[in-house]
Each structure stands twice: as structure tokens, then as C-alpha cells.
Design brief:
8 strands, about 500 residues, two-stranded antiparallel sheet, four-stranded mixed sheet, Cytochrome p450, globular
Length: about 500
Amino acid sequence: MVLVILLTLLALVFVGYLLQEFRRPANYPPGPRWLPFIGNTPMIRKLARVCGGQHLAFEALSAEYNSPVIGLKLGREYVVVAMQYPAVREVHSKEVFDGRPNNFFIRLRTMGTRLGVTCTDGPFWAEHRNFITRHLRQAGYGRRPMQLQIQNELNELIDIINDLNEEPAWPGSILPTSVINVLWTFTTGTRIPRNDERLARLLQLLQNRSKAFDMSGGILCQLPWLRHIAPEGTGYNLLKRFNAELNEFFMITINKHHQSYSEDKCDDDLIYAYIKEMKERKNDESSTFTDLQLTMIILDIFIAGSQTTSITIDLAFMMMVLRPEIQERIHKEIDANMQQDEMPQQNDRTALPYIEAFLLEVQRFFHIVPVSGPRRALSDCTLGGYRIPKNTTILMSLRTVHMDSNHWGDPEIFRPERFLDADNKIINTERLTPFGLGRRRCLGESLARACMFTFFVGILQKFTLIKPTNCNADPSIKLLPGITLSPKPYKIVFRLR
């Protein structure tokens, strides 16, 4: 009899648990029903394969449920996706959405911790973000020293292209090192040699990482127990290798800084400044300034600075081949406003408005980060009139903002002129949000914009970009899915003008 009662109680508890798993929170955003334990994960993965990417799967659900806010459950985690400008702006502007998720993927990204800047929140995040911003500015970030660093990398890039002797090459194979070395110099005080084999391995791992996951963390985040069954298939081994190589790479640099530290070097780069802060707080048991946190900050800088900017420049070069009439207009604008041996700089942007409009259109049209985030609701709140429970993960569909026909009119057409008025002045940028908005706006925005403009103008000043003579197919504007979208490898010829 006792056994029957116990079994009955266990059955009731299990049924109650299943009902709780099926339950949809009150006034939660519309979306598909989910299953216990796995939620909508299998359905979203299948829909993403059919549609061509997770971002397109979210858009399909938005259309199906006729809602700019979609409510899901991925694994055990509530996930809400904000679509279109009003909902995306609401997430960007409300402080309640400034949190970051505390899930398996986020912790694995930062080597099992919850450190760094990108994936943290609250007072910890604010303290370290303010420190990084202050000391990068002291080292010249956003000012003349940064421009000089970019020009130095541009000179090396031009030499590399000259050495190609008009042999076809994929820009994506030479750009990332140039971009990352600008910010790396501010962080560490030194460049990474282009022939450094460790850097080549890290960039390849980073590229693989980007394709293996999506902004929600992929199956490794939603069903982390699968790493024990399929460590390769889930990307778990990939992230472990990436973390191990990064840690070794960074610690060599950090240890060298510790050995050569002196107070008069503290304005030279971010690591010396951070070491100084560590020394000043060494007697403070509550201090969060540690070697491990420094490693995570460098990891954030490395990840943020090594892909999105170089991909954007890569796509700008690709459009020169696909739209030769645009390239001709760009060459004319450069020739009319710059000397052949004059190095481009940020101040030239006002004199080259069509190029500025072209780069804005590249960012809008390709939206290489189609879904941004993830954010975490710091308390129960609302979004678009729906109730969002505390700790819900929030994703933002930037593609729906950049491809909104009600605002842009013809978003499927690549047209730089949409950003120019009758007087050739830049307009219509308020809904272009590749760097985000609000308090969590991208720290590297100034660097990214300067790199894109300087590298692009500097290369177009010297070269004409053409399709190889033995290539019949045009580069594809359909990008490969992942955390960031990227072009399929293609080749072009840099012909000296």
C-alpha cells in the first residue's frame, strides 16, 4: 500500500512537472508550442535549415504569428525575439534589458567564467567598461594616434596587394590581420606579425566558431548535455580548442607586460594600465581586477575586432566587382578630392560623401549581424505590450530594421544614394544600427568606422578591382549563416591604377 501511494505521488509530481514545462507564461509573446526539456530547439533548427539561417526562421515565425515580438523556449530557457524598429529600439533603450544571459554557452565562451566586458552586466560590467574606455582614449583611441595606426596597417596592406602582381586573391584572406592589429596595438603595445602561425590558427578557429553557432548559442547552449554525446557535432571541442589557444596566446603577452612593467609605461597600452590598477588594488579583497579578468577583456577585444570590420570591407570590395558603375563613381570622387600620394583619414569623410554613403549601404544591405544580443531581462517587464519574465533572453533582429520596406522603400536594392540629400549631405542614418544603441553600444565603433573608411579609400585610391578573366561566375551576395554572416570565398584582381 505504501509503495502504491509513493508511486502515485511520484506520478503526480511528474505530471505536474510536465504541465509546468508545457505552460506558457501569462501574456507571453505569441509563438509556437514547445516540448518539455527541449522546447522549440528542434523546430527552430529545422526551420533555419529550410529558410537559410536562424534570422530568417525568426522572420518566418513573425509573419506566421503576425507579431513583431516572438516568444520561444529554447532548451529550458525563455527566449524572446524583437522584430522591427519599435521593438528593437525598446530593447536598446530600456535599462531593464541591459543584462546578459548566464548560460552554459556564455560561460564556456569566457573559459568557464562569467568575466570580461561583452558578456557581463551590472556594476561589474560598468566598472570595467568605464576603465577600458578611459584608458583606450588616453592611448589615443578615436584620435590622431589611432588614425596613424590604421594608416600604418594600410601601407602594409597595399604592399601585400602589390606583391600579388595582379594574381587573383580573396580579400577575406588578407584583411583580418590588418584590422585586428590596429586595436591589438592599443591593447598590447605591439603588432602581431602577419606570418605568426598562432594568429593564423586563431583566426581560422574564430571563423569556424562563427559558422558553428548562432546568436542564441546554438544547440550547445540550449541542450548542453549533448556535449557528452557529440562533443564535435555540438561545437564543444571547437570552443575548448579556441579557448586553450587564446589563453596561451594572451598569457604570453600578459606575462611579458608584468615582467617589463613600470609606472611610466601605463599610458602606452591597455595592459600596462590594467596592471597598474591591479597593483593599486592589491590590498582590496573585493577587487575584480585580476589576470583572469584581463585575459577575458583581451578575448572580448579579439573577438569583436577580428571579424565584423574585415567582413564589411570584404563585402565593400565585392560590390566594386558586382557594380562597376559604383566603382567608377568612387574613383572619380577620390581623384577629385585627394592627391594620389595622400593618405586617407577620418577628416576626409565630409569631402567624400558618396563613399561614406556607399559604406553605410554595405552595412545596411548585408547586415552581417542579422540578430544581435543576447540580452537578459533584469526583472519582470514588458516588451511591445507583452509580459517578459525575469531572466528571459532577448534577441534583436537587426535585419528586419535594415530591410523594412515601410521605411527604406526599396530595401532589396543596393542604392547608396538613399543616404544622400540633394546637397550631397549624409542623411537617413537613424535606423542604421550595426553597432547597436544605448548603454551597450559597441565599444569598437570608432575603430571600425575608421578602419572601414581608411582601408577602403586607401585601396581604391591605388587599385581598380576587377573579376578574374578566367572566372565566369560573379561573387554571391548570399552570405553564409552563423553568429556573423560572411561571404563565400571569391577572388578578385587588384589592378594598379
